[in-house]
Amino acid sequence: MSRRDLAETPMAFVAVLVAVPTGFPLVWMFYSSLKSSREIFASPWSIPSEFLWENFARAWTVGRVGLFGYNSLLVTGGTIFLVLLLASLAAFAFARLSFPGKELPWMMMLAGLAVPSQTAVVPLYQVVKTLGLLNTRTGLVLCYSAWSLPLAIVILRAFFRTVPKNLEDAARLDGCSSFGIFRRVFLPLTTPALGTVAIITGLGAWNEFLLALLFIRDQGLKTLPLGMYFFQGTHTTDYPLVFSALTIASIPMILLFAVGQKHVIGGLTAGAIKQ
Amino acid sequence: MTIPGLKSIRHSEGFVFIAPAVVIFIAFVAVPVVGTVVTSFVVWDGIDRPVFNGLGHFVRALTSDPILARSFANNLIYFVATLVLEVVYGLALALTLNRRGKTAAICRAVLFSPMMLSGVVIGLLWRFAYHPSSAVGLANGALSAIGLDGWTQPWLAQTGTALAAICLTSGWAYAGFYMILFHAALQRIPNELYEAAALDGASWLKTFWGITLPLLKETTFVSVLLCFTGAFKAFDLIYVMTDGEPHHTTEIVTTWLIKEAFDRGHLGYGSAIAVLLMIVISAGAWALTRKSSFKPAMEY
Prior knowledge:
Chain A is mostly helical. Chain A is 75% helix and 0% strand. Chain B has one domain: Orthogonal Bundle (MetI-like fold). The longest helix of chain B is centred in the first third of the chain and has 37 residues, at 3-39. The radius of gyration of chain B is 25 Å and the shape is globular. The interface between A and B is large, with 106 and 97 residues.
């Protein structure tokens, strides 16, 4: 150990000390999911005497976490796809095309940034019902996309505005249509921004609860947060099962964070304006 | 000449690009937002014909709904508590962990990680953590481990502790987010300023007040704004942990709104509550932004 490391030791100790209260409940969740019911009711501190990996299997099948996860994956994937497509098209027009009456939809998007969806759920339910989309994953995808669009458009427009004008002019001189310029010049240059938008949108859709709670009735269509919420009611006494389900639901997001920490933090702090 | 024609093609092109986004936005955002205001003026159960009620719902909400008043008060308490437990604590964490090296980086990552989880997962996890039995729950288990068996409580089930317990959970989950915001801001402060202060022999406290804090002004402001809007639009965590129980001591505006509109079918009254909530959030955000030159939407 060098002298510098030694000098750093007290500070490293303090750092670990402040991280433990946050980290420990997550660790606790994980090792509790491997315990038997009897062990869970014996002590919160004891490590499982034997790792009961079958708790995960039970949560996946009996608890239907696999099914809920599949629904969440479809809804999240659909939302990311739709938002990237619609927002990048619109952001390109807002950034680079001039057309009359552009101001009104732009102001609408800015206003949309400020309104939380929680305050509009009553008529939103009626809209979804009228369109025959109650109790469908499509309904969730459309709602999540619509509420994600303003921020996505604002972020992408800012990126599109940084693309040099002469690149656009050169492509136009070569006979490229606006759509061609969008697809061949702008999209390839703005993949980092698209990644940011995908992360904010995806995380929001994956974790969303209120609209799913209001719109989805079928057990087979429930997303993870919704399934887990009811799950906790039907398996109230089966603690290992609930702990395993919580762990399974957390793993993809924790992994995403571990792999793409920089992008996730960048995305969420950019998305902070909306939150 | 072909130029006017070209120009009009370009014009219609713009509409084609924005149309899909605008159509979806109007259907699922604009119509519901305007619809909330319209619905707040009618009595409606979602089935029969709506009956115009003027400002009746607002009068009732403001004069004779003690639970709504309680809910707004709880949101305010939640805001003040999370301001300390998330923003102030997040700043303290950022200052503590504002150093190079793997240890600090890993600790920051750990502190941020609950931010990745859904409110439902956080709420369910903490219902276990607050389990009334010290053989199951972390909170009571910790108390009895250090010999304070007498202090163990059914944290979420009694009126005196439920809201505080929820606020602590919120702090656990989101302090790391504000820490990251402050960390990014601290990284942007040029080191020369601290070197100069050190040469002048300024104390740590003086450096903090004189250099660090003023340069964190903008981030602090954004954090307070986010904490405010976050506290007033909160739903998932509280719905999962207590749903307003016991005796409405953890009731917040959104949980009350959902009960009125969807459990009791009072769509008009629920919408009026939503309108009041929109007003409170916008007024609060406006009051906060007014004091600052910073305009969130302008950042991009």
